[in-house]
């Protein structure tokens, strides 16, 4: 019997609305948002491929929440990693309710700087630099040597 447990999600999609940063009573930043993610599927005997959008509820906390609310808006492409979390509660009628969310650990730019009109340097969720698409990679010169390798 295996004890393997893995709860990892990677989503890339577009925001369905502007993220709104809120604060808990303890002053912790939180943002909830929905990502529209296209899913390919095949319909019918002809095998014609179509796509359908799934709308995934996400929540981010602390610096990740601040990062998302600052640099992303409705329609922005966003790539997130995180985990799935389910919640249960009882509503006013006594019925048991369920919700499933993606708890975001990391958020990354997808659009190029020209597409999103955003700064090329921004801190990521952990305060480290995160860069948007900066164009072509630098041109490195190949160094040729005739030396024999010592191994």
Describe this structure in words.
With 151 residues, this protein is mainly beta. It has a domain at 9-36 and 53-125: OB fold (Dihydrolipoamide Acetyltransferase, E2P) (Beta Barrel), CATH 2.40.50.140. It is 9% helix and 49% strand. The protein contains two helices and eight strands. The strands form two sheets. A five-stranded mixed β-barrel has the order 1-3-4-6-5. It has a two-stranded antiparallel ribbon with strand order 7-8.
Q: Can you give me a brief rundown of this structure?
A:
The protein has 151 residues and is mainly β.
Give the overall silhouette.
globular
Strand order of the largest sheet: 1-3-4-6-5
**Named CATH architecture of the domain at 9-36 and 53-125:** Beta Barrel
Structural class: mainly beta
Question: What structural keywords apply?
Answer:
two-stranded antiparallel sheet, 8 strands, OB fold (Dihydrolipoamide Acetyltransferase, E2P), 151 residues, 5-stranded mixed barrel
